[in-house]
Amino acid sequence: MRHPLVMGNWKLNGSKHLVNDLITALRSELSGVVGCDVAIAPPVMYLDQAKHQLAGSRLALGAQNVDVNLSGAFTGEVSAAMLKDIGAKYIIIGHSERRTYHKESDELIAKKFAVLKDAGLIPVLCIGESEAENEAGQTEAVCARQLDAVLTTLGAGAFENAVIAYEPIWAIGTGKSATPAQAQAVHKFIRDHIAKQDAAVAEQVILQYGGSVNAGNAAELFTQPDIDGALVGGASLKADAFAVIVKAA
Ligand code: PEP
């Protein structure tokens, strides 16, 4: 039985003030909620503050990126060990914004995945196609390629205790979510693709949907059998909307 995970990706948003207010509001909105794992991923600058403010709550801490290097002369980077040290649990990798703006390749992302597993952290691997790829009927091929980068180097076992977020790029931040049926079809494809190598691992891997999830569309998305929660961008910055999404899961 898979336990849904709803995770907020705060992206490049926040301040000490916002972290304080948002976590205070989330703690109150989500107190007593069970049956769904919840995590927030603030900017790296605020992880320590967030960890302290989350103490004693059921909300877990996440981060938005990790470097492949473990330590040394890599200016500006953050290692898996540092994220672990600060108390983060779920680490987003392969987000389309990093693939696009930072030219991160499938191979680099597979290395990040391996580094996180080695550190005992849970990767949240984002995959998904662009609008042009979607219109060209390449959705499954793109997702398969992005998954295969991990599968061929680490094997299907890598997805044990890992999370995959299917995030069609055309749905991110656009207000145009995939329909529940569209998302379900891709989620089923992803699970079947992993099952070709290891059925047990495929059955337990958490498959989140991400892309304009909001308080109005979450419940219907979560009725789908292969949608195990959501990775939420914009709506995760509003405690009331995020709480509705969590409760729907
Ligand atoms: C995201 O960036 O991971 C995301 C899903 O954003 P939004 O919910 O704003 O579409």
Structure description:
The chain contains 11 helices and 8 strands. The chain has an 8-stranded parallel barrel with strand order 1-2-3-4-5-6-7-8, surrounded by 5 helices. β3, α3 and β4 form a beta-alpha-beta unit. The protein has a domain of 171 residues: Aldolase class I (TIM Barrel). The model has no long low-confidence stretch (mean pLDDT 97). 43% of the residues lie in helices and 15% in strands. The protein binds phosphoenolpyruvate. Phosphoenolpyruvate binds next to β8.
Q: Just give the CATH class of the domain at 64-234.
A: Alpha Beta
Q: Order of strands across the biggest sheet?
A: 1-2-3-4-5-6-7-8
Report the β-strand fraction as a percent range: 15-25%
SSE string: EHEHEHEHHEHHEHHEHEH
Identify the overall geometry. globular
List each distinct ligand once: phosphoenolpyruvate
Q: Residue ranges: pLDDT <50 for 5 or more in a row? A: none
Main beta-sheet annotation = 8 strands, parallel, barrel
For this entry, what is the oligomeric state of its chains?
A: single chain
How many separate helices? 11
Question: Considering DSSP H and I runs of 4 or more, what fraction of the residues is helical?
Answer: 40-55%
Distance between the termini: 14 Å
Mean pLDDT across every amino acid position: 97
Count of beta strands: 8
CATH topology of the domain at 64-234: TIM Barrel
**Compute the gyration radius: what is it?**
17 Å
Structural class: alpha/beta
> At CATH's second level, what is the architecture of the domain at 64-234?
Alpha-Beta Barrel
**What's the CATH superfamily of the domain at 64-234, by name?**
Aldolase class I
